[in-house]
Design a protein that fits this description.
By secondary structure, the chain is α/β, with parallel strands linked by helices. It contains eleven helices and 21 strands. The structure holds zinc ion.
Length: about 425
């Protein structure tokens, strides 16, 4: 499709979904009415800016199914976010939604080069979390063989990876980084013992250096994949061969960037918060959903020939951003620095404390002979200062001493400051 054709599809679908959501979801109708907007006000794609935002707390406040646009007996599947505090967010799918999600995941697998005959080891958690089943549906959509190992039990993961001749690894990037080290600790020589070809890693921000590390150790090609439970799950976008941003499936998602503080729509190429409108969702239509993820949108055609717009890899979720003594710090920036320094292990932890002033401490693993190397500490400190603009207390710790990401997402940040 040419960009012009895609835009025509988007406009047609946008007008239809706005009308549908207005008629069937009480909260959306109320918001439109309060803002003095009618579905008929949406005449061009730019008119999307007239639509009121939806935010995460709207989903929480309407727990469990207050945003349904259909009778409950038409639901085909339900998922829920992890809900670390309070009630989770429930996401609902009709049969059509589920087919759509599976198709988008299938496309994402296809773009990453996964084919019939591939063996996909799905190390995402199966259950309410959308990761497990999302990747499962995607693997099925391209006709690959799926091995649903789910998270954890690293020894068994590695054994099956070797014995079943897994060609595609799907898991969080932090778990794959962990496997770099764990596979050797278990006596494997990754490039000799495994036949991994492709990796699909998402659900948390990761750095270019983590990609290099994974690719060097396993000899695979690593693709970033983007999504979130609120937007079906994984499969909203994926990196093509060019790996110069992630293609967002434009026929199903209208993507914008806004200034997080004012809500003002930004020009393509400017960094801001990603906002998505789902163009054909039946069970729970979401209009202008604010993700808290910071990125940029590129509309220029990609060398791969696809017309779908691209976003830059996610630097961090604005919720993950730490403000340390007035300076914005993303954990991915710390990772970027550490992975560029020779002699460090893959695991690190960021600790923020406050006595009078905020302090940032970084613990990173290294080999026993370098634990007391003042030069190494100084190098890490100066590199962090160069990238973050603040001084960090650097501590070298023994290999294996920091907590590992065995299940799901890594918990690399410990914020010990008093809340509020
Ligand atoms: Zn491309």
């Amino acid at each position: 499709m040419k960009p012009k054709q895609l835009k025509a599809v988007q406009l047609r679908r946008l007008r239809k979904i706005v009308d549908y959501a207005y008629r069937n979801v009480a909260m959306i109708k109320k918001r439109f009415d309060e803002a003095g907007v009618k579905p008929s006000s949406i005449k061009t794609l730019d008119d999307v800016s007239k639509i009121p935002f939806t935010v995460k707390t709207d989903l929480r406040d309407n727990y469990p199914l207050g945003l349904l646009a259909i009778p409950q007996n038409r639901l085909y599947e339900l998922h829920a976010s992890s809900g670390t505090t309070g009630k989770p967010i429930v996401v609902a799918y009709t049969r059509g939604d589920l087919n759509c999600w599976g198709r988008l995941m299938g496309r994402s697998f296809d773009v990453a080069g996964v084919r019939k005959g591939d063996v996909v080891q799905n190390m995402y958690g199966y259950g309410l979390f959308t990761g497990g089943l999302g990747f499962h549906y995607g693997a099925k959509a391209v006709g690959a063989t799926v091995v649903p190992t789910s998270t954890g039990n690293t020894k068994r993961q590695l054994m099956l990876m070797k014995d079943l001749r897994t060609t595609v690894a799907a898991c969080t990037p932090s778990y794959m980084v962990y496997l770099c080290e764990a596979s050797r600790a278990e006596g494997y020589e990754p490039k000799r013992d495994f036949v991994l070809r492709v990796g699909l890693f998402g659900a948390e921000p990761w750095s270019e250096e983590a990609r290099k590390r994974i690719e060097e150790v396993f000899g695979l090609r690593a693709h970033d994949i983007y999504g979130m439970s609120e937007l079906y799950g994984p499969g909203v976008g994926v990196e093509c061969d060019q790996r110069n941003g992630l293609h967002i499936w434009g026929d199903e998602f209208l993507v914008e960037t806004i200034a997080p503080d004012t809500g003002e729509v930004l020009e393509p190429g400017k960094e801001g918060e990603l906002v998505f409108t789902m163009l054909s969702r039946e069970a729970m239509p979401l209009l202008r959903y604010r993700t808290r993820d910071l990125s940029r949108v590129f509309e220029e055609e990609c060398a791969c020939g696809r017309c779908h717009p691209r976003i830059q890899r996610i630097k961090g979720r604005s919720d993950d951003m730490l403000i340390v003594g007035g300076v914005n710090v993303f954990p991915s920036q710390v990772e970027h620095v550490l992975m560029n320094i020779q002699g460090l292990g893959d695991q690190y932890q960021i600790i923020v404390t406050r006595t009078d002033l905020d302090r940032l401490a970084v613990k990173v693993e290294t080999t026993a002979d370098r634990l007391n190397d003042p030069k190494l500490v100084k190098l890490i400190n100066s590199d962090l200062l160069a990238v973050l603009g603040i001084n960090a207390d650097v501590e070298l710790v023994e290999l294996g001493s920091l907590p590992r990401s065995e299940v799901g997402k890594a918990r690399r940040v410990v914020d010990l400051r008093p809340k509020g």
